[in-house]
Records
---
Amino acid sequence: MATVSLERLRKSHPGAPDALRELSLEIADGEFLSLVGPSGCGKSTTLNLIAGLDEPTSGAVRIDGAQVNGLPPAERDVAMVFQSYALYPHKDVRGNLAFPLQMRRLPRAEIERRVAETAALLGIAPLLSRKPRELSGGQRQRVALGRALVRKPRVFLFDEPLSNLDAGLRSQLRGELKRLHATLQATFVYVTHDQAEAMTLSDRIAVLREGSLQQVGPPREIYERPANRFVAEFFGTPRINLLPGRALGLPEGEVGIRPEHVELLLEPAAGALPGAVELCELTGAETWVTVALGAERLVARGEAELAVRSGDRVWLRAQPGRILRFDASGEARKA
Amino acid sequence: MRRALAACAVLAFFLGPLAWQALTSLWPEPELTRPLPHSLTFASYAGLGGTFARAVLNSLIVAAGTTALCLAAGASAAFAIAKLDLPGKRVLLGGALAISMFPPIATVSPLYLALRAAGLRDTLAGLVLPYATFALPLTLWLLTSFFRGLPDELYRAARVDGCTPWQAFVHVFLPLSWPALATSAILVFIFSWNELLYALTFISTPSRRTIPVAIALFAGEHVEPWGQIAAASMVATLPLAALTLLFQRRIVSGLTAGAVKE
């Protein structure tokens, strides 16, 4: 297993804005790190640079302290799982799992042993002689996972591996991935645009936007203490409420408050601001209530049983410790 | 009913000349001008003789050689253009297209001189080489678009799994390109099988002639052996028909099904 360090990585393409701008990041041994951001933020580029599928314009990639710039993927000992699975269509499952080992010229007995071991671990042993086209989406992704596992690489790279699966299967495989990471204790670098996926899986999250790193930290820290407006808005569903500070009686700048930190009261109370209900969205476990507060709109979380209808008068109170303040450039201010 | 009639009309249009040729080859030579012969005969085929058999063999060698050369060079080049990060891909593809635009007649004399200088005049290799250069652009374009259609992630997966670019080509992409290879093979084979101009110009020894040349030179000063010409054409056409029918089964789509999410 291994550490990965990225030092001032830059990737530019002629005639286009830089895909990566001086990205520096330390990934610890055995860590599950997610690279998150909207499409085009440079997360997949970063993954390709670690894998050796692409070379940085400047900067260094180190695995276990040794610089790997210029080394072909084969010599970096990393494995990758792709969004489209990228299974070899002409090989059966056994052939797909064995291929990376055959390329490393392992003895046949060893290959068979490892293929059997991996197939058992992932529950795909009954599928070994099937072709990829005879598998369901979830089975294909398990085989793709197996093709990465079978090599026992130093680093696992995941490029949106669950994005092509339907919601039910996605959460099931998410759980399996997490268990797998705990079992293997290997270094995982996981690219996703799905903030919920990153939150549930990762030890740490690195948020990227337009090629530059916005914030790195554990999920809780990213969620509770976002470094800037962008990070605050990217995480959390429904989205964080952003409004001018004076709407909450604060002197200046912009403030953010997450819907679950806005108390919804049916009667006036100290520090509560009056508003009118615009929309109620029941999700089952709770109700998201959109309230017009003067010219601003706020979403607050209410109980599932909450009996309000649009037009009703309600009072909102922001939990004081939960208000995030941003300056004019969108950076978070220290409280 | 109307459809059946239309289908028959189309079939007659395409197969008519072939049927006529087949009948001519079986018609007894002295009765060619009669509306109906007394009997059909294989005499024209029997009269083709050893020289023509030699021409068939030569054509086979030249066409097979050209096809092999074209596919080997074309497939690897097309893969590199489609999947690797090469500078000047467009120039290469454009150049190949430009080359195929040259009218063959304009290239005959310079090619003749070049082949003579290389000591390849009047050899079968001296046909394979120019045929390959003329057929290569088509192969290149066809295979490039095919390889472009295969997902990039497949290439990236192969690289991460330990392949060099060449190994990725051999182990992953080549086994998937059967349909495109078969299509290119047929086209190149037909082109080299039918080519007349170069074969007529570059080959002087009768025993090295290819089928089109042999047929063209059948006609004597005073006689036109129609029966034999027709028989020879049939012999020349049958391998192509067989080849096309054979490969038609190979040209199946869906070979990549299951590789990626559709």
---
Amino acid sequence: MFIPHSTKETEEMLKSIGVKKIEDLFDAVPKEHRFPNLNLPAGVSEMEALGELQEYANSNETVHELACFLGAGAYNHYTPAAVDNLLRRGEFYTAYTPYQPEVSQGTLQAIFEFQSLISNLTGMEVANASHYDGATATAEAGVMAYHNFRGKRSKILFSEAINPQYHDVLCSYLCGYENIQIVSGSNKQDPFAKPDSLIPQIDEDTALVLVQYPDFFGRIFDLTDLAAKVHEHGALLGVIANPTALGLLKTPGEMGADIVVGEGQPLGIPLSFGGPYLGFFATRKEYARKIAGRLVGETVDGKGRKGYVLTLTAREQHIRREKATSNICTNQGLIALAATIYLSLVGKSGFKQVANLCYQKAHYAAEKLSALPGYKLVNSDPFFHEFVLKCPKPVSEINEFLLDQGILGGYDLGKDFPGLKDHMLIACTEMNHREEIDALVECLAEVAHD
Amino acid sequence: MKIQPNLKYASSDEWLLVEGNIATLGISDYAQEQLSDVVYVEMNVSVGDIVKKNSTVGTVESVKAASDVNTPVTGKIIEVNEALSSTPEMVNSDPFGAAWMLKIELSNPEEINDLMDAKAYEKYCGDRSH
């Protein structure tokens, strides 16, 4: 609730700090800069403004018109119409973070269901109410690991095959921490190093080992041995997981992960130019008090009726003040609700089917593309719905050609990995019809000859 | 409110039992009463750590508040009561006994002289409740 100050209160406050009027507080800003002439064009009517904005919007090309093979962290999945419909109910749409949580039973129940779904999906015991996106959830894993060892272990060891943007956000979040080193498990020239290659570098100073599953290049590795070695040294294993893949694959929890985070966008959230997305965060029960954000629990009231409560906010600022270990005080409520509705609608078997379709289509595409002269499938490891294709031309050039043919091509890996010039990361989902994949194959064959 | 006669007390409501150069630390009955039901105890230090006078060594969380535990003495941690993390309610039921938190080997035994005895602490608590 927002409580504005009354005129009397404002006067009292000004008086006690010895200022006559509010404007005097801005004395430090030179007068001529306080209300500068912004040199803006004359105002237009609502109708004109809408027309102009519509024109801008029309120059966008979206996945509704294009065949999309771009993934690298955000994926073009089908969202059942009911998701948006339910989400836009006023009770959900207008509600912000519950400040008097127990009054908002609907919101709490939605969060509780979300947590339960994420726990099941990741094979972990507890999940929190969500984070902004996969990158910030990953950063929180680093923060939690650091505090878990009370700063006594200084190393976060990461695989080069994690999303490079997640790595960057992790570094930003931790840049103010004393004696933290974020150490690469290999070097940029060898981004394809497998998770087990991290093992020799794990030591007693390692707080967290961070890998992605499937990794940034789509590859699937069993992490069981890695987890065992991480635990031998008393460290934590963090796994960034793709939720769709978890519909089909062994869970990170089963392989021994201590923290599982990821991007929830594939769960019915539109691509919408990069956000808002959804971060999920799950861990083992013994770390429940170490996680950022909040946990909702199910209980019974005095009359034995089912109810929901904000069970834990152990690290939030409002309870811990300067002792908080995270500045997260809220959760991505609406988007978490969308993911909850999505998972409930598709159901267990439907979700598995989505994952299977992604897998099959990607494998069909990989098989066809690798048969093209000039192209090469770079990895021979098992993969989920994304794979790396070495191309005979610069990826940017190929993508320009594809766009002219109505195809949104794959991710140019050369941007993040200097050694992967001319390497394209191609993603397939259930949205890619066979005809689309065949068209991609044809176009790539054609562009190779030009 | 109970006050144990043979202990030393800090103004932040920790008690110390000094035996030779070893001090056992906990929080007082007054402190646990103020906190109400304790749901979580976490020690921020481990055996072998050197702690400075007035530094934070742990946290006690109740249904009402989260409160720091400070050490009023400098020294080396030689034992941590691990049982408290699984049975934090002992802080309410037996604050001067089973709910001891740390044993510290004193580096500066004269720091003990800065602490209150039972009588002074009783007055200190009494003054605060009015």
